[in-house]
Design a protein that fits this description.
This protein is mainly α and about 425 residues long. It has helices at about 5, 15-30, 30-55, 65-70, 75-80, 85-95, 115-120, 140-145, 150-165, 165-190, 200-215, 230-240, 245-250, 250-270, 270-285, 290-295, 300-305, 310-315, 320-350, 350-365, 375-380, 385-395, and strands spanning about 10, 10-15, 100-105, 105-110, 130, 405, 410-415, 415-420. The protein has three domains: about 1-55; about 55-125 and about 405-424, no CATH class; about 150-350, no CATH class. The protein contains 22 helices and eight strands. It has a two-stranded antiparallel sheet with strand order 1-2. A two-stranded antiparallel ribbon has the order 3-4. Strands 5-6 form a two-stranded antiparallel ribbon. It is globular, with a radius of gyration of 28 Å. It binds protoporphyrin IX containing FE and 2-acetamido-2-deoxy-beta-D-glucopyranose (3 copies). One 2-acetamido-2-deoxy-beta-D-glucopyranose binds next to loops.
Length: about 425
């Protein structure tokens, strides 16, 4: 048998034969057939994926519900159909399966407080990446995180960390105090009017103005808005509702919605204002000598960052607006939510509120008739106030969104389970 013979099939050279087959196939490709083909392939692909996830994945041995192991639609069902309720279901799953549960095809959920310190570790202990399920591939990576990879994250943290150490905070104390005083003035103006103040918006305006005074030379004045910018916060709230949809359908957003959503975000909402502001200020700061910038009384986050080439190296030329935007959003909403939580719980339990008021009245009474108010250094020594702040931070659970971690190099042992390294 020569090699040539093998190329002949039914007496027709193979090449020709395949042409004929192709022609026949094309003729016979009717819509029902196409649908049949696509369906068959989809089913085969899904089956293969399910089998991989069930039996071959590094997470195959972890306990969890069948559906959660094979598909992200399980989480989708609880989070999108039942509006963000997967966390409740996860609690039930822990009751059933124990402290370590596979909650999606590629995530392990751990319900063991002592494991916290094994998972969220400092860079020196172990390399850690964030697992960017929420924004990955949506084009919103830049708006939701500094950087998810361990090394890039550490590089950027260095200049940012310096801005939030004790001494830097002391330097911006007057900016914070000014804005708190402004809020108090506004709240007093409501006294005896019978009007209801929307504290969510009032506190959001407070924190937005504070953080913006830390980043920008032209800070925002949301506290000056008659209804504390309620319209803008309503827009943000609606956006927040879609987080779970974003998280589950990144491919849809990537394919269809991204250009549209980007347009909406950058043209219709106020993101643009912050962006333009950052761009303007970067130009301004570049014209100043660098040492003058950092020691100025009104020095800002941008002052400190603009003269280092780190940001643009990491993010490209849009780096500053992007970083300013991120710090602005991150510094506003989580803080106002925490403050709101404290106020709500205190108002609901007067027996907890009374001792706080007494403590503060005592501190303030020493300032009667003086033009200054107690400083942070003094206030942080007040035991009950400190306890209220600590408890507020504990109670304000933040976004109902997991912040998963990936260890690219290390396996770690938790509750008797060996968690595999890397992404699955
Ligand atoms: C009550 C106050 C705050 C709470 C409860 C809070 C909570 C959080 C949480 C839970 C994360 C996610 C971390 C993760 O994925 O592991 C985060 C990230 C972040 N927060 Fe805050 N935060 C607060 C205040 C602030 C302030 C005042 C700023 C800025 C001045 C800020 C800037 C950021 C930034 C930039 C990130 C992203 C970090 C990154 O990607 O590495 N936060 N915050
Ligand atoms: C994030 O997206 C990139 C490319 O778009 C992909 O290579 C990577 O695997 C994704 N990561 C996760 C955790 O989905
Ligand atoms: C306060 O304002 C927010 C918009 O930011 C709105 O969603 C919320 O329902 C308002 N609360 C009340 C009690 O009206
Ligand atoms: C606010 O807190 C939540 C969790 O509490 C976190 O997922 C989110 O990243 C924080 N927001 C920003 C912009 O950092």
């Amino acid at each position: 048998m020569s090699g040539f013979n093998e190329l002949v099939y039914d007496g027709v050279p193979f090449i020709q034969k395949s042409h004929i087959e192709l022609a026949r196939l094309t003729q016979s490709l009717t819509w029902p057939r196409i649908i049949l083909l696509v369906t068959t392939y989809t089913i085969l692909y899904t089956l293969t994926l399910a089998i991989y996830r069930l039996f071959l994945s590094p997470l195959a041995s972890f306990p969890g519900p069948f559906l959660a192991k094979i598909t992200h639609w399980y989480e989708f069902y609880y989070n999108v159909v039942h509006a963000g309720k997967y966390y409740e279901k996860i609690r039930e799953l822990h009751d059933k399966y124990g402290p370590v549960v596979r909650v999606t095809p590629d995530e392990i959920h751990i319900n063991e407080p002592s494991a916290y310190n094994d998972i969220f570790v400092v860079g020196a202990t172990r390399k850690t990446n964030a697992y960017p399920r929420f924004s990955n591939g949506t084009g919103f990576e830049d708006m939701t995180a500094i950087s998810t990879s361990h090394d890039a994250h550490r590089r950027l943290r260095v200049p940012l960390d310096k801005l939030f150490v004790r001494n830097s905070i002391l330097r911006i104390e007057s900016r914070v105090a000014d804005r708190v005083a402004r809020l108090c003035d506004r709240l007093s103006s409501y006294q005896e009017t019978g009007e209801v103040v929307n504290l969510t918006n009032a506190l959001s305006s407070l924190t937005t103005d504070i953080i913006s005074s830390v980043i920008f030379e032209e800070p925002s004045d949301y506290l000056g808005d008659p209804d504390f910018n309620s319209e803008w916060y309503e827009t943000l709230k609606q956006g927040g509702r879609n987080v779970f949809v974003f998280k589950h359908l990144p491919w849809i957003i990537g394919a269809l919605g991204k250009p549209l959503i980007r347009y909406f975000v950058t043209h219709v909402t106020r993101w643009t204002i912050w962006d333009e502001k950052a761009r303007r200020e970067v130009l301004l700061i570049r014209k100043r000598p660098s040492d003058g910038s950092k020691t100025r009384e009104k020095t800002t986050v941008l002052d400190h960052l603009v003269h280092s080439d780190l940001v643009e190296k990491e993010f490209g030329s849009g780096g500053f607006p992007r970083l300013a935007q991120l710090i602005q959003q991150a510094g506003a909403h989580n803080v106002s939510h925490t403050l709101g939580t404290m106020v709500t719980y205190l108002l609901m339990s007067p027996e907890k509120l009374r001792p706080l008021q007494k403590e503060l009245e005592l501190i303030w009474s020493e300032y009667d008739g003086k033009s200054t108010a107690p400083s942070w250094i003094e206030l942080e020594k007040a035991p009950y106030l400190s306890a209220v702040v600590a408890e507020g931070l504990r109670m304000a659970i933040g976004g109902m969104n997991r912040t998963p971690r990936v260890f690219p190099n290390d396996e770690i042992k938790i509750c008797g389970w060996l968690i595999p390294r890397g992404e699955c």
